[in-house]
Amino acid sequence: MNIFKELKRWSRRRDGELDARATHALDARKTQPALIEEALEEWENIGARLRRQPIPTPPAEVMWNDVRRAIHLLKAQEHEAARIRFRWDWAAIAATLVLFAGVGLFSTRVLSPPTALAAPRVEWVDAALPGASAMVYEDQTSGAVVIWMVAPENGPANGGAI
Amino acid sequence: MKWIFGFLVGAVLLSAPPAAVAQPMEIEAMLILASNDPAPLDRRLERVDYVLRPLLRFETYRLIGQGTVMVNTPGTASIALGDGHSVNLRTGRTRGSHVEVSWMRGENRLLGTSVSLQRGKPTILGGVPHEGGRLIVTLMVK
Predict the structure, then answer these.
(1) Which candidate in B87, B99, B121 is best for mutational testing of the A interface (most A CBs within 10 A)?
(2) Residue B111 is nearest to which of A89, A123, A147, comparing CB atoms?
């Protein structure tokens, strides 16, 4: 029997790492080497010994500072969350206003287009003077519209007109 | 938050301009004699002289008569311009701001047209021979 392998097997037995058959075979042994018995007893005592050791406790002031730090962190997180929510609120309002402005612009400019684009300035002209015809001229600079009647003897060359 | 949102939506909806609001138009008409005879500048024409000179090649412009009228949409109106001339206006029969204009001399119509009158953009009717020059009617939305 290799005592080290045996120790390792018993260690695995305590840790629950052995399968059921190996565990049963180990438990069925009537006798154990003295070294194994000592090791098992030592392992049994380790837990109690560790639990008996004093755990160092920080001073009350340090613990209070930890609590204050935790409170501060919690408040900071809540403040940040509220700020993000506030930003989102205003973003929603701004987006709504932009949407309505766009709809309004669309309805005024697209659904009912400006008359200047929808139709020419002059729809029709009827020159009622006998033998006269009419010229239509729209000046791009001033935006003025000129509707000029041209009689046969009233050409631009001798009439002084346009 | 919800009431702010609702208030904004309501405000935007209430402040949206109506699709088509018929506003009365104030139209001023001037009857002008344009000629090449030398004459002093007619100061009453300062508002239209700067438009007439680049467009028409006459030396002088003399104001014969003028008038202003408020026209409803739709509606009709007439402006007496002196020397037997008048301008009849009819709005609302055509789309947009088009106005049917009839330039009358007594009972005779000299010129008829349907034109879009726009603020700051005069409409110039002309070409009727008169006393060696040409008569001009300017229409302006005030």
Answers:
(1) B121
(2) A147
Q: Which of B17, B21, B126, B104 is nearest to A160 (CA)?
A: B126
Q: Which residues contact A3 (CB under 8 A, 6 or more apart)?
A: A33, A35, A36
Number of structural domains (chain B) is 1
Chain A touched by B116 (CB under 8 Å): yes
Q: How many CB atoms lie within 10 A of CB A120?
A: 15
pTM, entire model: 0.55
Q: B86 lies in which domain range?
A: 21-141
Per-residue pLDDT for chain A (162 aa), expressed as one digit of tens each? Answer: 688 888 899 899 888 999 999 999 888 887 878 888 899 889 989 988 888 888 888 889 999 999 999 999 999 999 999 888 888 888 889 999 999 998 888 877 666 655 545 567 888 999 888 888 888 998 888 889 999 988 766 444 334 444
Q: Give kind and range of the element (H or E) at residue B38.
A: none
